[in-house]
Known about the structure:
- By secondary structure, the protein is α/β, with parallel strands linked by helices.
- It is built from 26 helices and 18 strands.
- Belongs to the asparagine synthetase family.
- This is asparagine synthase (glutamine-hydrolyzing).
Amino acid sequence: MCGVAGVLAGPRAEPAGLDELKRMIAMIGHRGPDGYGFYRDGRIGLAHARLSIVGLAGGFQPIHNEERTLWITFNGEIFNHVELRRDLEARGHRFYTRTDTEVVVHAFEEYGPAAWAKLNGQFAIGLWDAAKRELWLVRDRLGILPLFYARSGDHLAFASEAKALFGGGRIEPRFDAARLAQVFTHWSVAPQGSVFAGVQSVPPATAIRIDADLRLHEARYWEPDMAGDPALSRLTLDEAADRLEEKLLDAIRLRLRADVPVGVYISGGLDSSVIAALARKLDTTQMHSFGVRFADTAFDETPQQRLVANHVGTEHHDILCGAEDIQAALPDVIWHGESPLVRTAPAPLFLLSRLVRDSGIRVVLSGEGADEWLAGYDIFKEDKVRRFWARQPHSTARPKLLSRIHPYAAANGQKDSPLWQAFWKRGMAETDDPFYAHRIRWQNTAWTQRLLAADVRSAANAQAFDQAVAAHLPAGWSRWSPLARTQWTEIAAFMSPYLLTSQGDRVAMAHSIEVRYPFLDPEVDDLCAALPDRVKMLGLRDKLALRRVASRLLPAEIFHRPKRPYRAPMTTALFGAQAPAYVQDLLSEESLNRYGLVDAAGVAALAAKAHRQDGRMAGEREEMALVGVLTLQMLARNVLDELPGRASSLRARLDAAPIHILEEHLDSAAA
């Protein structure tokens, strides 16, 4: 994948200078270390940082059509580019590269905006139509890759990461208090935004057309239909597994297309193990796999990872992640992620992507998406139990079903605790709430907002996130089953804005690693959406169709294994006797008051408690609150204090790198 940036000038404004474009793209050079390209005319400036995956010899961007009226800066991969190219050539299009990027240009030339729905891939597109003086900003169906934009007077700037907008000098880095509060409730901002004032995100499955007068026209080009296909309603479990395996094989086959080696992530869980096993069916040459081990055995899955690697026959590489590794990685994770975190989970994945790079691999397959599309998370079971309980709210037997989801509750007697049952009973009768399953979790996480400064808390708008997600609910959503509605909320409100960002693109591209997701292939997702609920979850048994596929490929220990959420040590890694020096620095009274984003007294009290207890906190909410505050302070220092110095250093690095394309047509698109 790559890094993209650009500036569109209004009809009476000066176009962006080359130096500004260089400053922007230098900030995201980690996304594309293989060279830089630029295009300028009287209205647009485009910049690109290239990571070579397909078409190694001639794929430097921006890329154009035959008449040089369309110019593109593109981040991502189009996995069906071979098939699209064949069709376009049959229609008379002539190509000058072997890249998937040029396929996008000709597809738009042939089909116009209908082209976006034809792309099977993960992408962020900036496409300039010089004839119409229109800029298109387009993002893939599920928001795998990022794309931000911001207005500044008579200019609109866009980039893969917000830091590129700031590096150009037009956009000032300022925090949006209301969106910061969203992170401390939902783990991320709503899909249309960022934590920075005025910096917007192109939503998933959306194309924004910016016309000659800088007016924005936004349209979704895809939405799911999870009502279920009547033609599939009678499928047996084996038949559903057959169809799922067939679609996954096709998705993996497409994602093995590359001019560089492709590896696989193996976590030890069901999803990545299935991907690894199917990939080996298609590719019998040497394949490398990668996993994270934890020094803390409470988080470690080493035996399962090695069992899978040995079973499918990969050359396995792993890292052992301890407290000191999380401490060392976290500042870089925040710089690349551009958001506070209420979890440390991205840090080990940052280290894992570095291992991939150091092993000489640029592309890896991941199992992300299976839990969302095939109902693997506990939240789907919680929803089912609470709806069942809501029919007889005074039942004492029905709430005990939750102990089958959370066995720790049965082990220590919590399931009979009035406090524990009261937690799950909150809002239980409000089954018409569009976010019924998620509301209880969001309310629980919102406790962390008490460590934010009073003016940040006062800016919090509990309805804003709901409204932003609801605005993009698909047609017919209200007629879906409760399971399907909860699945889509998990995809739209959590997977896209958090998992694919903080634990996906940002930590991987920090080391120029491209992660590909077979479970997020359009054909796989459309099948999963159409399958009946009973082959996803029956009673409280999850991912039935996928487990049946796994039973054909993997040891019983893996395909029978219950879902184990990926987690990493939090306050035990950052507080107490082993705390790194930056914790005391960032949480000092001086630093807390400098940025004014948190309640200094509340933070000091909770941090002191964490230090006294070597980071062992009474509850997860306290851990999340402290991690959130610490990483918010890191981010504030990054963008408010350190940005100019970093920008200067990165620009110097760009000046020493090759620039492969520099096209300037300063009169061709003047107003």
